[in-house]
Design a protein that fits this description.
about 260 residues, alpha/beta, Rossmann fold, eight-stranded mixed β-sheet, 11 helices, 8 strands, about 15% strand, globular, binds adenosine-5'-diphosphate, binds magnesium ion
């Protein structure tokens, strides 16, 4: 049985792509067969983030001809990836029928198909939301992101979709909205708080996921804990409260 999960939020820049790629790889580390699908056809970034920016084949081809096997790329971790191409032919609107056919092809092919969605409340996003079984609402801990995410929550509720929980990213400190404030506003539990982590930018610079390059970095640990929640396994790694210098040394030692 394939689980179809999507990372969604109406606001851009809140960590949907970062969550999709790191959670996807973490789930793979938990021995699940995973395909990360870049469902953001307008501004795709999964391929760029994982070192395959200029793919010849990608989601566009799968949507056109329905053949999924030929367009799967493999990340070093073994996680499968369906990137979206960067060329302009992908500007064509994606239809619900095309996406439905893609979902039918993916069914049974993998344990988990994890979709990285674009921001906004476009037709494309609502199609993906309709087709997946479970939603992860991604937000940063500030009022504008949370209120935008609330819009996505309302859309999901209208569709009768199962919201797995809220993933709060870029958690920094005192000025952040608290976990309980976010839970009260959204009406769903915060199942993961990913700390602000400079190693995410370092990983991005190296076109790879933090969890692959810096497995001991705090955000990597948090993403593994999130994966455990998603697969409902009893696992908890403590995120160290070390200072920046200690973290740099540790992360480099663990490479
Ligand atoms: N935990 C984090 N710590 C530091 N930077 C982060 C973190 N999560 C995401 N970012 C950065 O925030 C920016 C937006 O993240 P991204 O995943 O692309 O958001 P979205 O897909 O929602 O637009 C990226 O530059 C990314 O590197
Ligand atoms: Mg994105």
């Amino acid at each position: 049985m394939t689980r179809f999960i999507a990372c969604v939020s109406a606001k851009g820049g809140v960590g949907k792509t970062t969550t999709a790629i790191n959670l996807g790889i973490a789930l793979n580390q938990f021995k699940r067969d995973v395909i990360i699908v870049d469902a953001n056809t307008t501004t795709p970034s999964v391929g760029v983030s994982l070192g395959t920016p200029l793919v010849e084949t990608g989601l566009y081809d799968a949507l056109k001809n329905g053949a999924v096997e030929d367009i799967i790329h493999y990340h070093d971790s073994g996680t499968k990836v369906i990137p979206s191409q960067l060329d302009l032919k992908t500007r064509e609107a994606v239809s619900f029928a095309q996406l439905k056919r893609l979902f039918t092809s993916l069914k049974g092919m993998t344990d988990i198909a994890l979709f990285d969605c674009s921001a906004g409340v476009s037709k494309e996003v609502s199609f993906i939301m309709k087709l997946v079984d479970e939603l992860l609402i991604v937000t940063t801990p500030d009022p504008t992101s949370v209120t935008a995410a609330l819009k996505t929550v309302r859309m999901a509720e209208e569709m009768g979709k199962d919201i797995v929980g809220i993933v709060v990213t870029r958690k920094k400190g005192k000025l952040d909205l608290s976990k309980s404030e976010i839970e009260e506003t959204m009406g769903y539990p915060v199942i993961s708080s990913i700390p602000e982590d400079d190693f995410i930018r370092r990983a991005q610079h190296n076109q790879n996921a933090i969890i692959s390059l810096y497995p001991r970095a705090p955000a990597s640990i948090a993403y593994r804990n999130l994966a455990a929640v998603v697969v409902e396994e009893p696992y908890h790694e403590r995120v160290p409260k070390d200072g920046m210098l200690k973290r740099v040394v540790k992360a480099i030692q663990n490479r």
